[in-house]
């Protein structure tokens, strides 16, 4: 069988992550598109790929490309993904799927009408012990859910000198921290816990009023000094949710919490047991039990649920992490293109679900009122 030809549009931090995962999954990168034709040429050379596309029209006109990976700033997701789908290409589009609910709705219905594979990298679903938690909840081990809680904390925007396209609502969208990382948490706990949020009450705060005017790559901080500019997007947020079954959930998100690099943490408490997962300690699932007991389930191919074993590509004790999640997600996307049905593959429908939650969270933060999701 001939190798899948792909194009990567957007060559920042996350474009490089897509590249690694695509190569490992056996695809051939036919070309790259970037913020300028010059930058595309530079990256095509350093990645050793044949084509540097001038614009999206050139990408979608390339007959060697079957899949387009959209890794651009958020405001370009809709036009890029739409052009690719309309040209008959499968699409992997970064989250948030779009910066407005309207755009996300349009993309999800276009994807459905074409029958093409269209996925969104909610990649934390691919931690093997996350799948273990999901399987245990689905089997009823926790009993009825009583409480869902957690946080997603980063510190890469702690320094007022740091700035990034995500901070600018014209490029990143009306919500920053919630749409960027709160979206991952919501996707994860809804998927793991099997309950959907129906109401939200949220609060946003911008705690750094001015930032350095020079935008850098994600997770980098330029030297202090130089011009500053006002910030309007939120640095921190808190949200309470209610699920359709009445379970209360609470979430704290931040990109200014010193020492927290990428700490997505959740706990789901049921009537018989609890489970807790920490993305920065992702080889272990904590299981809380009654009668002064607790357990730790350790990732590995030798025990646990079928999906936990499938995604455990290394033996126990040989640490897996974020990169492996991304690799598994991209490999599963390509399996779906080959007409397989991998479990838990996040699609444009999940991207749309996330856009709906973000839209309602923004509405609640503005109105300061409990707001229905749906
Ligand atoms: C930046 O906050 C970021 O790269 C997010 O955009 C990703 O989705 C998350 O996985 C890590 O942090």
UniProtKB/TrEMBL annotation:
Residues 5-120 form the Gfo/Idh/MocA-like oxidoreductase N-terminal domain. It comes from the Bacteria. Pfam families: GFO_IDH_MocA (PF01408), GFO_IDH_MocA_C3 (PF22725). Residues 130-275 form the GFO/IDH/MocA-like oxidoreductase domain. GO terms for molecular function: nucleotide binding; oxidoreductase activity. InterPro entries: Gfo/Idh/MocA-like_OxRdtase_N (IPR000683), Gfo/Idh/MocA_oxidrdct_glycsds (IPR050463), GFO_IDH_MocA-like_dom (IPR055170), NAD(P)-bd_dom_sf (IPR036291). Keywords: Oxidoreductase. This is Gfo/Idh/MocA family oxidoreductase. It comes from Pseudoxanthomonas helianthi.
């Amino acid at each position: 069988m001939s190798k899948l030809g792909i194009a990567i549009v957007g060559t920042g931090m996350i474009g490089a992550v897509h590249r690694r995962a695509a190569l490992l999954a056996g695809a051939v990168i036919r070309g790259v598109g970037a913020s300028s034709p010059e930058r595309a040429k530079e990256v095509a050379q350093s990645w050793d790929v044949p084509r540097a596309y001038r614009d999206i029209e050139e990408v979608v006109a390339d007959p060697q490309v079957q899949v387009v990976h959209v890794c651009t700033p958020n405001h370009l997701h809709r036009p890029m993904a739409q052009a690719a789908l309309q040209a008959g290409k499968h699409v992997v589009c970064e989250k948030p799927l779009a910066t407005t609910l309207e755009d996300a709705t349009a993309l999800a219905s276009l994807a459905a009408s074409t029958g093409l594979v269209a996925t969104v990298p909610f990649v934390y679903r691919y931690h093997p012990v996350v799948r273990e938690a999901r399987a245990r909840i689905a089997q009823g081990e926790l009993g009825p859910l009583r409480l869902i809680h957690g946080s997603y904390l980063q510190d890469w925007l702690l320094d007022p000198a740091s700035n990034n396209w995500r901070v600018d609502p014209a490029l990143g969208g009306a919500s920053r921290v919630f749409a960027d990382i709160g979206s991952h948490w919501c996707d994860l706990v809804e998927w793991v816990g099997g309950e959907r949020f129906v109401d939200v009450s949220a609060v946003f705060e911008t705690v750094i009023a001015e930032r350095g005017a020079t935008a850098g790559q994600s997770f980098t901080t330029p030297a202090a000094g130089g011009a500053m500019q006002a910030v309007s997007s939120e640095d921190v947020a808190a949200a309470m949710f209610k699920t359709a079954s009445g379970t209360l959930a609470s979430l704290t998100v931040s990109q200014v919490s010193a020492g927290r690099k990428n700490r997505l943490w959740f706990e789901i408490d049921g009537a018989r047991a609890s489970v807790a997962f920490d993305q920065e300690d992702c080889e272990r699932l904590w299981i809380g039990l009654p009668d002064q007991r607790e357990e730790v389930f350790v990732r590995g191919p030798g025990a646990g649920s079928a999906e936990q074993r499938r995604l455990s590509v290394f033996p126990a004790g040989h640490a897996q992490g974020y990169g492996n999640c991304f690799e598994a997600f991209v490999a599963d996307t390509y399996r779906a293109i080959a007409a397989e049905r991998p479990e838990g593959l996040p699609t444009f429908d999940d991207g749309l679900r996330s856009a709906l939650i973000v839209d309602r969270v923004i509405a609640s933060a503005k109105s300061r009122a409990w707001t229905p999701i749906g």
